[in-house]
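Record format v2
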Amino acid sequence: MSKPYVIGIDMGGTNTVFGIVDARGVVIASASIKTQKHSDINNYIDELYSETMRLVEANDAVGKIHGIGIGAPNANYYTGIIEDGVNLPWPTPIPLVQLVSEKFGIPVAITNDANAAAIGEMTYGAARGLKDFIMITLGTGVGSGIVINGQLVYGHDGFAGELGHVIMKRNNGRLCGCGRTGCLEAYCSATGVARTAREFLEARTDASTLREIPTEDITSKDVYDAAIAGDRLAKDIFEFTGNMLGEALADFTVFSSPEAFILFGGLAKSGDLLLKPLRNSLDKNMMSIFKGKVKVLVSELKEADAAVLGASALGWEAKPMVNIVPPQL
Amino acid sequence: MSKPYVIGIDMGGTNTVFGIVDARGVVIASASIKTQKHSDINNYIDELYSETMRLVEANDAVGKIHGIGIGAPNANYYTGIIEDGVNLPWPTPIPLVQLVSEKFGIPVAITNDANAAAIGEMTYGAARGLKDFIMITLGTGVGSGIVINGQLVYGHDGFAGELGHVIMKRNNGRLCGCGRTGCLEAYCSATGVARTAREFLEARTDASTLREIPTEDITSKDVYDAAIAGDRLAKDIFEFTGNMLGEALADFTVFSSPEAFILFGGLAKSGDLLLKPLRNSLDKNMMSIFKGKVKVLVSELKEADAAVLGASALGWEAKPMVNIVPPQL
């Protein structure tokens, strides 16, 4: 391959992290800028370009970049557009592929952040060699990237894999960011865990170190710390969360019969606190023909590199833009 | 193509229907035998062979059969085996591809009945030209065949697409044939509709022509006839069924973002009685990014031909068996 590097960009609501990655998945160098700094998307792209080029020059990579891969919220692989950017400071739709490829002059491919993580995991992580797996990202929200027969599932419109938005509670479910109620994301995300804490603290009367924290300030990290220290109520929150995740994964299994689920993101690092009830619940709720067949794994990618690595893997398959009519901004 | 025909076999719990099909999807001739007649699988295969050969000879098709495709309950495309035949009179696993290809001397491919229907629909029916769709079969049970990017989803073990077994009711759900409770199939199959009738009749006190039928004898056909005749309780049963199906299809959409759902089987012919509440519920429960994008279609295949046609389409891709070690019967 004449051009030995790709650039991976992880465009988050707060930070945009970017790095130069080689074909073996080594992040040669990385840096970041603040996503929220510019109210005009063009200024953001300008800064992204100048900072990326600085990294490229400093690492002797000028003329050696094969393509750019970007993971961004609600980014559509097919259209190259961020169609409804929930956490971004600019009006949508954003023709991201067009903007970035015009600025950088090299091929660009985009997908949503969970899909990027799945591609990264398949290329460099715990899913190497797996042709059928589902990546579940447990962060602020719950995202997913579904791989079937070695291919990422985009669906007919590019938006497949929104597994955080299956309905787990059809009556009196929690309000979800998507506007509906009872979604998996409203329970099993980091914010969902914090909501569970508030519900448990109100509904129960037993002692808990979580009662020392102002209710509205409780985070999933607080719950984790309390559970690790032996707090019963905090442990029950993880039990509740793992149990529901197991129910959800059992349902997902009947869809695509994956060989494994790969958990990724902050909550996925909770260890047995989450994994034990999750695996018990998965086994208990699994349809018998799938019992014992499906592994639950935790991402092997280094947290700092994972998103950039995943996005970068897309860079290898990025194609130059041809005949794309720019949409109205 | 030197051999212009395939044989399609639909192996049901009661009847086995088989037909000779040409490349345009015309069923040249078909016939059937009783699946339950033989307690020894080898005698069943013998009769299937002699009856099929009679059809082949009568239609001048000797030496013109490219391959055989079989749709059968729990048939595994990968292994060629019926691994857990719920409604069949023989011990499982059944090495069906081996038995049939040894007897007939031509290539055989098998898949489960719902997958066969999906392949038939994609090849000859309402899904022609669609690359992403989900076939939902509403018969004695609820089955599904999922097509993503033009390919049937088999999953890592060949058992993907058991959408009748997602859990729709997590508390006090009905017992399902799979041994768990609350499955979609326990509510939205033909038998599910009959169960709903019994529940509604017991819970309600209003008049209904369904009260004239002994409770245990009520079928989904009785409910349909009563609803068509204007019976309020019967209409409410379809409303309940369509509503739950809409909830389920909304959940399936976030998985693979299909362009369409294709409904197939007895209940799918209930027209607006089922489709109206189903479409309303689908729209109401759909995540906003998918709203208005997903069609609900009814199979275009002739009922009598559909299963055979679907199975036959597999016959074109059947490969001769090579080096397959016969499993223990």
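The CA atoms of residues 8 and 312 of chain A lie 4 Å apart.
Residues 232-256 of chain A form the longest helix (25 residues).
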